[in-house]
Amino acid sequence: MAGCSQAPPAKPLARNLLIVTIDTLRADHVGAYGYARSQASFVDEVARSGVAFERAYAAAPITLPSHATLMTGRYPPGHGSRDNGVHVSKTVPTMATELKAHGFRTAAFVAAFPLDHQFGLDRGFDVYSDRLPRGPDGKPSNERPASQVVDEAIGWLRTGAAPFFLWVHVFEPHAPYGDASDRRPVLDRYDQEIGVANRELMRLLGAIDARETLVIVAADHGEAFGEHGEFSHSIFIYDTTLRVPLAMRGPGINAGERTTNRERQTANLVSDPVTLADVETDEEKKYQIVGDLEADIKQGLIAISSPVARALIGKHEGDTITIDAPAGQREFEIVAVLYEG
Ligand SMILES: [Zn+2]
After folding, report:
1. Position 314 in a domain
2. CA 62 to ligand 1 center in whole angstroms
3. Helix extents (H) in the chain
4. Measured in angstroms, how far is the CA atom of residue 147 from the centroid of ligand 1?
5. How remote is the CA of residue 10 from the centroid of ligand 1, in Å?
6. Which of 85, 206, 216, 257 is close enough to 51 for a disulfide, judged by CB 3.0 to 4.6 Å?
7. What is the DSSP string of 213-274?
8. Looking at the predicted structure, is the pLDDT value of residue 304 above 50?
9. What is the CA(63)–ligand 1 centre distance, in A?
10. How many CB atoms neighbour CB 278 within 10 A?
11. pTM score, two decimals?
């Protein structure tokens, strides 16, 4: 049979990277995580045709610091943004700065004010679209619809060729969950908003060449609906607001694989683009911005920042960090926050 005596084919590599972040999406409201009423078929589809990480955690229960960690591979002490409105370091490398240096076209389309370019996540992007509509009072809104974000993203995809890095952020699941006067149960409204964002993201998925693109989807944090006395997010660091859905698919990723044996931090995602074709073959400019996580932790500063609890301080003992949190404690094994690749 043809091919039997030949060397095994090289591992297929993606050329492009698409990162989708769905604001405020709890893992347990996603079908891939066992939710029977899932409106998040985008995540489910990526998980089904790729991998889902059973226990994935964001670095902070709030939008800007969490996204800054995802984009830099640094925890808040390392990238400098400890709260919404606190500027991200102007010098820390990001996925965008690194991939642009490798010749990628880069663009971001974001849907909410905490990610406005003035806070520093725009570095390295050729296009950073954050235009928010104005309300009746003339002031900019806090958010814009996924339909607009995805329209712009698809338009940009059509303007050029591979390789590209595209980041798309949608905000619907964030409070107030649609029409605040809606009397239906809050979880119904939350799920519905997930569905609104999802419909647009499925459109985006249809515009991507699956054979060439590494697709990663994550949330920046979860959402509390009264657990531990909390509503919304940004205060406590229980799984309620830190555990997030995380799935990826692309060339070389075996469909249906489910990773259950260890935690995965969104901070580790910066290591995945190393596998992109135009990066892996570029020996002189090997993309490698991981490795600083350990330094951040060893400063004695905890990975997680909370605006209410100021900087939470972690105690470093052997393989465990214990965090003093506003209500109770949470333990992390260090191995869980270091990249093992
Ligand atoms: Zn958020």
Report:
1. no
2. 5
3. 41-48, 63-72, 76-79, 95-101, 146-157, 186-206, 239-242, 277-280, 292-298
4. 18
5. 39
6. 257
7. EEEEEE-S---EESGGG-EESSS--SHHHHEE-EEEE-TTPPTTEEE-SS-EEGGGGGGGGG
8. no
9. 3
10. 18
11. 0.85
Residue 229 contacts by C-beta under 8 Å, 6 or more apart in sequence?
327
Whole-number Å distance, alpha carbon 267 to ligand 1 midpoint, is 15
What distance in angstroms lies between residue 221's CA and the mean position of ligand 1's atoms?
6
Which has the minimum average pLDDT: 13-27, 178-192, 210-224, 269-283? 269-283
What residues are paired with 140 via a beta bridge? 134
Please, are residues 158 and 126 in contact by the beta-carbon 8 Å criterion?
no
Cα 88 to averaged position of ligand 1 atoms, centre (Å)? 16
Give the whole-angstrom CA distance, residue 67 versus residue 219.
9
Instruction: Specify the CATH number for the domain of residue 127.
Output: 3.40.720.10
C-alpha distances out from residue 5 to 1, 2, 9, 187, Å = 9, 8, 11, 57
Is there a contact between 98 and 107 (Cβ–Cβ < 8 Å)?
Answer: no
Which structural domain range is residue 114 located in?
Answer: 16-288
For residue 12, report the distance from its CA to the centre of ligand 1, in Å: 33
Residue 283 resides in a domain: yes
Count: domains in the chain = 1
Q: What is the whole-number distance in angstroms between the Cα of residue 170 and the centre of ligand 1?
A: 9
Between 10 and 51, the more confident residue is 51
What is the CA(85)–ligand 1 centre distance, in A? 13
Residue 265 Cα to ligand 1 midpoint, Å, equals 16
The string over 18-37, giving b where at least 16 C-beta atoms fall within 10 Å of a residue's C-beta and e elsewhere, is: bbbbbbbbbbebbbbbebee
Q: How far is the CA of 318 from the centre of ligand 1 (A)?
A: 32
Is 194 inside any structural domain?
yes
In a domain, 338, yes or no: no
